[in-house]
């Protein structure tokens, strides 16, 4: 029988983290503003900014916090409209609501990318845009940036799942005003929880730093921001969304692993994608030409199946040990826009809905080897053959 790889567990944290964590435990120095300089969180910010090629980085408690602070840093008026894709994680419309703004959802096409005609049609009423690179799929950023720039509308990137992805050779997360990343366990770098934002704009990062909890004059330990922060002294609320030194100690030794994880993840993804695309039951949409992906999961669309066959497909694969979720068919899925019932007015998005009803999601960790990937593809292909076989007796 084929060996089914472990699809769930994360990679171990590099052993270098242990000595640093031990040092922090011995000194009790867990708060980023305890030591006057070179706190692990501050070092992480410098290293992450350098890795991305951005001027500034601000480490915070989650990517959701980074998105919220990014919107607050833009100083949008109450009830400002923020255009977001209809295919994203519930944290994105939630961050908009949290910032006292109103999310406007735009359609996403069968290729998991933003529908540019709907985007262009809805942009005029918006005062900011969040582009969520959902599962690392990159929309046509040239057109999106051109449309936003022409109207002077700031663009925030939700790059939670896009660390290592490039567009025309530029790092995703550095294309707009602010880019936000996640260190939650299912992302490229894992510290359980955590996030970071990057920007080249001193004023934006100064505002975000103060609101993240750099109270009094704690901002003096933020690189080169003394002037920008002094301007906002006592002017902004403190939301206290800081990262702890312990998390930074877990994250920093993983920065040097990103390039390998990206290369291995892409190899695994492309291998499984090629096998699925050779079958009539699957479509793995191609990336756009300027896009170089950094996947740690795979999304594919079921073709020519009924709702019942699609459900059976997900059930069959899960029984074999490969968990597949269909965004629109799994109950209470946080990525299906009709479940965001906390929104005042949630429009219907028929194209996005149709995509979600057949789009499948499976983790594909970078640590899998080619034989593991073949085992995954075998399970998916066998399940599709089984649920589409003519004269198949149900329940046997
Ligand atoms: C994980 C994720 C988030 C939320 O990140 P947290 O750090 O858990 O807040 C937001 N957007 C996308 C696209 C994500 O994948």
Q: Could you explain how this protein is built, in words?
A:
There is one protein chain. With 396 residues, this protein is of the alpha/beta class. Helix content is 37%, strand content 14%. The chain is built from 13 helices and 14 strands. Helix 3 (63-73) packs across helix 7 (202-212). The longest helix has 20 residues, at 258-277. The radius of gyration is 22 Å and the shape is globular. Bound molecules: pyridoxal-5'-phosphate. Pyridoxal-5'-phosphate (PLP) binds at residues 62-64, 88-89, 91-92, 132, 134, 158, 160-161, 182, 184, 195.
Strand content: 5-15%
Q: What's the number of extended β-strand segments?
A: 14
Order of helices and strands: HHEHEHEHEHEEEEEHHHHEEEHEHEH
- Level of helix content? 25-40%
- What is the CATH fold-level name of the largest domain? Aspartate Aminotransferase, domain 2
Per DSSP, the total helix count is 13
CATH architecture annotation of the largest domain: 3-Layer(aba) Sandwich
Mean pLDDT: 96
Distance between the termini: 20 Å
Q: Low-confidence stretches at least 5 residues in length (pLDDT < 50)?
A: none
Summarize this structure as a short list of keywords or feature phrases.
396 residues, globular, Aspartate Aminotransferase, domain 2, 13 helices, Aspartate Aminotransferase, domain 1, alpha/beta, 2 domains
